[in-house]
Protein 1
Amino acid sequence: MRVIVNGKEVHVPEGETVLAALKKAGDAVPTLCFFGHMYREASCRMCLVELRNGKLVPACAYPVSDGLEVRTDTPRVREARRTVVEFILSIHRVRCWSCPRKGGSCELLKLATAYWVEGIPVCSSCPLYGEDCLVIKGEPCLGPITIAGCGDPCPGNGSPCIGCRGPVTRRDVLEAAAQFYVSNGVGLEDVLEVASMFWEGLPSYGVLKASLGRAFKKALGGGVD
Amino acid sequence: MRLTRVEGVDRVFGHLELEVLEGDGEIKAFFRVTHGARFIELTVKGRPCWEVPYIASRICGACSIAHYVASMRAVEHALGLDAGEWVGDFRDAVNMIQVAQNHLVHLAFLALPDYVGVQGLSDLKSRAGRLVINSMKLNTTCLKVIKLIAGRIVNPNTLGVGGLLKRPFKGPLLKATDYLRECEALAKEVVDEALALLKIPELRDPANNCMALKPRRAYLTTGDEILTSTGLSFKPSNYEEYLEEARLEYSNSKAVVLSGAPVHVGARARYELLKDYSRDLNAPKADLSNPFSNLIIKAVEIPYCITAAREILEDLARRTTDTVVDPPRDGGDGEGVGVVEAPRGLLIHHYVVSGKRVVNANIITPTEINAKHIEASAKALAESLVSDGRPLNAGELQRKLTMLVRAYDPCLPCVVHVSVVRGRKHA
């Protein structure tokens, strides 16, 4: 079967998927739910590619046909993938500080950084585990509520996060973070103290402060994590 | 009458103007900083004292380590903390590598084109290609070492008030010494080549007055005594008795004078005042009363710093101990002054701490101290090139004045850390 991937011609056997053709052509597309022949659900939709007729199809499940033309990097594809990341993140339970994939192996963080989706906190890439975690030590590290993507130079070198990339604004993340802070004896004042260094000038700082206040109140009132 | 005005000097950090006027048979020079205000002294006010070094190091990207160390020492002094000998040596080593890197950038990329007679780095590359490439290699190595042991190239984050934030490992320290050992020969080669090209103009320093920090051990380590050529010797905490800060009407920065007279800080001042310590530098014979000789001493400091930093790091790797501290969160009341020999000279950070917050801050940067000295030297230089109120050669005067400013290596973002609004001092 002759397939044209981004203008490059490749030949794959009948019955294979577009993903196989992409691999042969050396064009990588992100996949989350695809695990070879073991599992083919096409549920995450990260591998969307554009056909010649403008249709978006999941590469991991769409069968090849002769003369099929696919493009992997068009504005529509990028837009669609970004929406997909947003959707996945919206139902994701963000508890990066206790996630086993923290410290550089978080797929979602890589995709979110690649498609400019903000909402994952710095903890997702922090290399400090367990006892070494600065919040668990009782320090007001802003890791749980700061947008990830910096590669964690500060916590990685032992100095607490000071929030230079700006705050995560999702309520559920703030609430979970407040729970985490409260359970380690870090108070709202300590967090706001550090946060005011970079965030006080933000137009949304008042709203953020109020949200954090509510989140801490809820956490102190004994919410369920 | 205006004799000349050097506007927008390129190949310096920041924006400045130098104006030379003539009136009533007298020549006057004005060193005018046109860089915008930065408000750092105002920003640190009210911040918890362990956060202040983070902010203070942002004053300058080129020598953030010097600001970081001075700031940490000031806070430690105010809180009565002692970081210990290991940490002190570690800070010295990191600072030395930064001094070497800063000098290298200044010498090879900013100052040298003047002496080769070319416009900039791209032209210099065609005349002295090997020197430029080797300097770039050396620069990369220095930055790599800083990143390896201090966490980041600018605003390092393994250092903290009261000690270190990250446990020092033997591996990175030894790796850093390997990197430094490899580039020692290269550094000597670069400096020899640069010194051969440096033919400094004749000029006699009109105010031969220098000030430097007396090191506790080797040259360029931190210390607790400030020396001057006038024979003064005082504790950094008493600096206010000797140094006067004055606001200038024509400049965005303040100027500092020592007992009313201009004073020079920097490589030349260090070398001249610390004769007991500066033997290892192997400087060529040079007339040290010439302000341009600053460049020669800067050059010889590069290989010295690399070797000395390597020796310190080797020693530290042997006695790696558990120096990690939890940053102090108790605070205290007090006043502290931290002094460091930054690449461009003496740097003073002074904080008043009340409770856990810094309530007042004063930062004196080397260029602030040098401002008046640059004016005095520019005046002397102009006098030698002017007769009967007319420059002998207008282009030559302008060129020499630009070279003079570059020889001091002023850092203007550092100098404008304080805000001056409508003639009122805000910080």
Protein 2
Amino acid sequence: MLGAVVSGPPRQLDPAALGDHVDRLYRAAWALCGSREDAEDLVQETFAKVLAKPRFLRNDDDLGYLLRVLRNTFFSRHRTAMRRPQAAPLPEEVEPADHSSATRPDQAVEARQVFEYIAALPDAFRDALVAVDVVGLSYGEAAKLLGTKEATITSRLYRARAQVARGMDPSRESVL
Amino acid sequence: MQAGDPNLPLDPADERLAERGRALIAAAVAETRAPLALRERIEADRERSGARGAGARRRRLRGLLIPAGGLVAAVAVAVVIMVGGGGAPSVLATASLAARGPVLPAPAENEANDALLKSSIDGVAFPYWGPLKWESVGARDDKIEGRDAKTVYYANPAGVRAAYTILGGDKIDPPSDAEKHTRNGVNLYVVENNGRRIVTWERNGHTCVLSAPASVPQQKLLQLAAWDGGGGVPF
């Protein structure tokens, strides 16, 4: 389980098994960064760090470990970088995302807006929402990852979800 | 910040809003996958790091053995490295290819046979599962124990992904602890490993391996594996 200190011998993280987690980390990265281009860079940098040397884990939670590295990488580099003024790409310069399962063009647009609103949430609310709703961790796993209580995760999730819904409907006021 | 206090009472009027937010997020998550280009870059990084790791291991082995055993030991090490594992790959090792993710575009449908895709290995073509609501979304080619292996990834409308691998060369045995089932006259062997459900069976003398998250019902995987497309998928 995520963040749990589990006894037993350490096992080496299998690089060949990391491909299973690319989609979830990409979504998490997009929700952290608010931009697909920054999300791609963040995920690639995360994997490069993990692959740079053998990694040994004391539990079976590869995804939790990867999410932790992703967050650390985001906080140490990308957030600082994103505070600098940046030139926004023209629409035609943006590579289309892989929305191969989206059945309508407006679904892709809505997904982009949702991730942008998540990224704009206050850190504590965004992190809870990314851990549970985007990556799929349990409340307990998210609480351990974020160093807080499950009740706090519950409350933050509730408010963060409501804020995202309000963001998609600007006529409503913020709840945060 | 006020909003960070978990003990603050929540406005009941916000409950519907929170539920709508949850649904919006779930929809966005379900339809979003990592771009193929990103997967390719990560796969290239992984292969480079694997090559570096293998090189380091060889250097460590040489450093350990040459002082102790001289030239004979060095030759022995070289033989071990060149021969590698040898023998036939296992079903689980073949299924592990799925974890590497797609690095090639999804194969197109075969216009001459609407039950198949335009992708095959040793003449055994992958099925087109569009009628079953599983669409091909990517592919990859590998070598395992010296054999070619081709994998096509399929996804259902919820974004759940399954990997279908056809192994080149002679068929291999199913895992000894696999459960045997029969669908449409096809013998299918099911095993679970690392949270994934794996089905293996034979088509035209080749081993096929289908793996998906264990959340995909076994009956669905068996149906996919044994689907003959009205006779268009040869077994």
